[in-house]
Amino acid sequence: MNVVFRFVVHQLRWLVHIPFFPHFFDSMLLTWAAVTRPSRLAAMTSLEKATKGEVRLAVHRFGGVEFRTDGGQQLGHVHGHGLLDVHVSRARARKLMAAGRVCPHHIFPNSGWVSFQLETPCDVPFALVLLKLAQERIDGRFPCARITGQY
Amino acid sequence: MKTPCSPKKNASLWLWPLGIVVGNIVTVLVFVGVEFLLGRFGSSSLNSPSAIPSFLLVPVCGGVAASFCWRKLNPSYLQIAFATFIMMILAIGGSMLAFGEGIICLIIAMPFFFVSQLTGALLGRVWFRMPPGPAQWCLLPVLAITATGEPITRTDRQGVVVDEIRIAAPPHKVWPELTSFPDIQTAPEYWLFRMGLPYPMSTTSGGDHVGADRQCIFSDNMIFEEKVVSCVPGRDLTFDITKLPQHPELIGHITPSRGQFLLRDNGDGTTTLVGSTWYALHVRPLWYFDWWTRKIFRAVHLRVMNDIRDRAERG
Known about the structure:
The structure holds two protein chains of two kinds.
Chain A: H1 2-11, H2 21-36, H3 38-51, E1 56-59, E2 65-68, E3 74-78, E4 83-87, H4 90-98, E5 103-104, E6 113-117, H5 124-139, H6 145-150
Helix pairs in contact in A: 2-3, 3-5
Chain B: H1 7-11, H2 15-41, H3 57-70, H4 77-99, H5 103-127, H6 134-149, E1 158-167, H7 171-179, H8 191-195, E2 200-205, E3 213-218, E4 222-232, E5 236-243, E6 254-265, E7 271-281, H9 286-314
Antiparallel strand pairs in B: 1-7, 2-3, 3-4, 4-5, 5-6, 6-7
Helix pairs in contact in B: 2-3, 2-4, 2-6, 3-5, 3-6, 4-5, 7-9
């Protein structure tokens, strides 16, 4: 699934200009995950529930669910195959990658963006940490008491 | 904060069956609408019951419509998958009752239909998360227009399936077994044949000459009328299929147009028998249904050709 995703993102990038195509492609990734890796969907649902009321959910322009601050700034987004992209600071990104917890972003490898593959609901706590770090990058404060309490 | 058992949520449970019904109604409406438009405005090659709307795009529309009904339930991905599965079962059952579709066709179409409906439903789950706006209202019309426009862009594509086997007998001994043969006694091996897909039983022939009539008789009383167009004894028997049986597993889905047996003398007392079938496939997406079509034709070929081999080798 990751191979298909990377191929489309890198080689067929022009498809994003076709209306609704990115969303259609993302829903195909979701379907593939539903058929082959339902635990990823469970993880994505858990992540949405864990952030409910604390961050705003929206549709990402390239497909997927986007996590936003109340001010409308993007913290990150999760693609249909469970790949969570989060925008943390560059320094944080380097540390996280050095620790081997995250991968470089599939489009912007040398930026503050990092990618984390959700596999099971057990991955949700770390995904929340990443969103917390993204929030810190924006304003140094994370509105989710549940998350800050845990970490 | 709402809990899963809050009265409001329980009161909304009727949205599940509503979404299932609405999703299937939209699927049928788009399907019938495309058929109607093709019948009235389609090109000559598509202006027939054979121009079946895409099994990718049409179910997606149904999935999106269902998801629109389910949006207030804030369903999880897996709940959506389960509800879509129920929706697909009802759609398949409805197709059998309302359109007289064959069970084997539906078994073949079912996985793809489910995946397509699920794609639409999951697309809707994400999409209808946004506050209502023009973009939300555009999604279903855009999909419906795409589903309608897709058949107009199709071109007729002839496919051919070719299989060959080696027979331990010279061509002059194989040839008489080709032109006509009695009932094939062996039980069908291919799993779709065992489930009810008609399989070849026998062939009758009006003679070994061009213009001779043939009949290829399948189980379930399916008879293909054929006419010989090329006949070189010991080498080539080619026939056009002139009349297809009116069978729900076949009508509108596929048109086999020509069959051929070629014999190649291997020079060592053995013969290579090559069997070919030419066909046009009318269901889309092509890559999915063509894969099934080739598997089925291969099973038909091998059932006939193995029987020819057995009889020729027995002498």
